[in-house]
Amino acid sequence: xxxxFFAGAFGSDASKLPPQTRxxxxxxxxxxxxxxxxEVWQIPPGTAFSELPDHWxxxxxxxxxxxxxxxxx
Length: 73
Prior knowledge:
Blueprint: E1 23-25, E2 31-32, E3 68-70
Antiparallel strand pairs: 1-2, 1-3
């Protein structure tokens, strides 16, 4: 199944997302918030999802970036 069928999916192209966009892991519901960053991966606050390194994965369950969905705020 293509990720684009999931509500909130960003089509694996994070470059189209506004820098402040929060995303949630569809496996464990961890929310990546650019304002907070990610202490586990030592990602500083202010880092947009699109700026995360390619090898970044969910700090809770190790899911890949394409397993994240856009959160409606």
